Amino acid sequence: MKARLRAVALALAALLLLYGITVGSAPGETEATRPTSVEPGAGGYSALREWLASARIRTASLRGDYRELAALTRDYPTGNVLVVTLPGTTSLVDRDIVPLHLWVRAGNTLIVSAALCDAPDWARGPQLRALADDIGMLTGLDAVGAGQSLGNFLVTPAVSRWVPALQHPLTEGVRAVEAVSDRVAPPCAVGLPSGRGALALLSSTGDSTGGRDDGAWLSPRGAGWVVLMAQATPFANRALGRADNARWASNLLRGSLGPGGMVVFDDGLQGAAEFWDLRRLLIDPRLHASLGAVLLLWLAWVAGGTRLRAPPVPPRIPGAAALVAAEGRLLARAVEPREAAAALLQAFVSRLPEPARAAPEDWLAARSAGSAADLAQLRSWRRRLEAGGAVPLDPLHDLLTRLRSPSA
């Protein structure tokens, strides 16, 4: 019992160690809240989503590929907004970007909020180094000087302010937009190449002329628009109420949403799992291919890998008669019938007196042992065996048994 308990304890310890290695966080490191529409933490967008819901503006959480945008907005295919926050937890290379560009050009708006000039705690990982490439893939704009690195953690979050770069309906009523950084942010020296048709909307405090310290841009794309923000935190739960961040968000959405339009949050890029949809599972061709492969393997196993057998009979302890019968069957398979017959006759004759062994029939006839027919049959079979012939084994056994009995 002690050995079993020790084995169970060691198994549980191994499972805990495996969990700590594969799932647990590193020592002294806590998991930061991600900017998703369902996250109530500091970095989430749940406050913005609830605010939109209170204003009766439809919202949706995109958990899959950008090919789902057309299905989400099929009732109102234009006048919708997609909010994307960078960096994400997954690479944009694994996503199909073409449906997104077609969706924007059809008359929708893409708002990209990128951690270029602020450094929230969740903006870390390998995707931070690919931030400029992801921005280019989404917006078609090259963010010059968008080098980003993970700075030291700040005990007190740092706040950066951005002011309107010009008078525009999107900046109406906005005096300042604030971004919050949990780590030391790199110098914000991000600009867009000239000739790309991008209009600067925000600039850093003290530089209202735009240029290399711009913080937000507006760019047309077909019948739609692309808004690129160099900050990832103004719409987060902890920063939406700071300065004029809420006004800035209201202007962007009011100027982009059409009648019946929807605000879609790209939660899938931030690691949010896809919603469970049984219908999508049942129509997925991969499911049918997998079931077909399993069925073929099962049929192959049944046809060639199995043998149909009767259920085994539980063994029984044999009795004396069974042992004699088994020995007889063994001898019957191992000894020739003629040899067995000769051995039976030899055993019968050896029990007679010495003078009677040469002609046992005459000796038995003189003593009236056995009928005349049995004695004649005995003489015939004995001579046949002496001549090397064969006799029937069972009748010989029965004959010798009759002659051996006292009544014979």
Question: How would you describe this protein?
Answer:
- The chain folds into 2 domains: 31-273, Rossmann fold, CATH 3.40.50; 326-404, no CATH class.
- The protein is built from 14 helices and 9 strands.
- α13 crosses α14.
- The protein has a 9-stranded mixed β-sheet with strand order 1-9-2-3-8-7-6-4-5, sandwiched between helices.
- With 408 residues, the protein is an alpha/beta fold.
- The radius of gyration is 48 Å and the shape is rod-shaped.
Which sheet architecture does the biggest sheet show?
9 strands, mixed
Q: Note the gap between the termini.
A: 72 Å
Give the mean pLDDT.
82
Examine the secondary-structure arrangement and name the CATH architecture of the largest domain.
3-Layer(aba) Sandwich
Write the layout of secondary structure elements.
Layout: H1 2-22, H2 46-54, E1 58-62, H3 69-72, E2 81-86, H4 98-105, E3 109-114, H5 126-129, H6 131-139, E4 153-164, E5 177-183, E6 199-204, E7 214-221, E8 224-229, H7 245-254, E9 262-266, H8 278-283, H9 285-304, H10 320-334, H11 337-350, H12 360-366, H13 372-386, H14 393-404
Parallel strand pairs: 1-9, 2-3, 2-9, 3-8
Antiparallel strand pairs: 4-5, 4-6, 6-7, 7-8
Helix pairs in contact: 11-14, 12-13, 13-14
Give a short synopsis of this structure.
With 408 residues, this protein is α/β, with parallel strands linked by helices. It has helices at 2-22, 46-54, 69-72, 98-105, 126-129, 131-139, 245-254, 278-283, 285-304, 320-334, 337-350, 360-366, 372-386, 393-404, and strands at 58-62, 81-86, 109-114, 153-164, 177-183, 199-204, 214-221, 224-229, 262-266. The chain contains 14 helices and nine strands.
